[in-house]
Write a structure and sequence with these properties.
363 residues; mainly beta; 5-stranded antiparallel β-sheet; 4-stranded antiparallel β-sheet; 29 strands; 43% strand; globular
Length: 363
């Protein structure tokens, strides 16, 4: 009863929608259930956490179709919408200022971790790591209404995608391949083979589109990809001796001074100095649980979020809070987005990937 009263009082004090006063508000929109892990689930929809208030839960947005399991979650400030993909081949749009579903569509192929261009025009939707058909690759979708614009066959197991912050490129990970597309005409700029060791795993890129860091499938580590030449000059392993776990999660701090990678089986996040090439290991963070694997950062670089209920102080490398639902149960996901509001309007959004945002020293 006390938990319920506390939650209601907090909800009233924060008002019905985030950011209804003149001060800028910072929230984490945390989708559940995660389609890739069973632990940490809490209903079907979005849990909204107040980043500036100890990551306390503000409210819940119920989205019935989320019961299919979330595969990806991205957002755009210009459209003030979040876009979600589910295991049920569904792609949808959620208005962040009204909490209303704008549209939902299903497609014959599938919907994996999608990316939206910064101008809010197009969503690039991988057909799924589970799909090996000849049409495996990208669905290009109109972000306004969900209409399919084109299907671009690329390679099997199209899984993770991200859009560069300058709007020039979109990147797609497939089975041991990384493909770079030009967003102006959807043409292939470069197709890079033999990356990631096996299968298809997460990656991140720096703000100047010079380097990608691709997770390995059989060891804790990553490949460094030179995006300008298509070469793979470095393979970096974590630990004093090779760790025979897959790596699922790689993120650059916003200032690009550090690269963090996930060892979900070992319940760790390994940290590398990204001011040198190749990056050099400098420490790790112990996590409270295992899970699917992921890592990204708040826009200001203060916090790291991953696939566990842990909120991490990114500078001190310490767990400082736990994500909990209204019943007090710890919750986790690997699909979440930072959203900033001012006077009830979306002014800035983060990314589900830990993208580099400013060129760091030596870059």
């Amino acid at each position: 009863m006390r938990t319920l009263i506390f939650f209601v009082v907090g909800l009233i004090s924060c008002c019905s929608l985030p950011g209804a006063d003149s001060a800028e508000k910072h929230y984490l929109y945390f989708s559940t259930p995660d389609g890739a892990q069973l632990d940490g689930r809490s209903g079907n929809g979005v849990l909204v956490f107040d980043i500036d208030n100890g990551h306390q839960l503000v409210r819940r947005i119920d989205v019935p179709s989320f019961k299919e399991g979330l595969r990806g979650f991205c957002a755009n400030a210009k459209t003030h919408c979040a876009y979600y993909s589910t295991t049920g081949r569904r792609l949808g749009s959620l208005d962040l200022e009204t909490d209303k579903i704008v549209w939902e569509r299903t497609y014959d192929a599938g919907c994996d971790r999608a990316a939206i261009t910064p101008d809010g025009a197009k969503i690039y939707v991988p057909t799924g790591w589970w799909w090996r058909g000849t049409n495996s690759g990208f669905l290009v979708v109109n972000a306004k209404n969900g209409n399919l614009l084109k299907n671009i066959p690329v390679n099997v197991q199209a899984h993770n995608s991200l859009a560069s912050l300058d709007g020039q490129f979109v990147y797609l990970g497939t089975e041991t391949n990384l493909t770079v597309f030009r967003t102006s005409d959807d043409s292939v700029v470069r197709h890079i083979k033999g990356v990631g060791e096996s299968g298809v795993f997460p990656f991140t890129v720096d703000s100047r589109n010079r380097f990608a860091y691709v997770c390995l499938g059989r060891h804790v580590g990553f490949d460094v990809v030179n995006l300008e030449t298509g070469e793979v000059p470095h393979r970096v392993l974590a630990g004093r001796t090779p760790i025979l776990h897959r790596t699922h999660g790689a993120g650059l701090t916003p200032d690009e001074t550090e690269l963090w990678i996930s060892d979900q089986e070992g319940k760790k996040l390994f940290i590398f100095d990204a001011t040198q090439m190749p990056p050099k290991e400098k420490g790790h963070v112990e996590l409270s649980t295992g899970g699917h694997g992921w890592v990204t950062f708040s826009l200001d670089g203060r916090y790291a979020w991953c696939h566990t209920p842990d909120v991490i102080d990114a500078r001190r490398k310490k767990i400082i809070a736990t994500f909990k639902d209204e019943s007090g149960k710890p919750v986790s996901s690997s699909k979440f987005i930072e959203v900033h509001f001012r006077e009830g309007k979306v002014v800035r959004v983060g990314d589900q990937f830990g993208l580099g945002r400013t060129a760091g020293p030596g870059k």
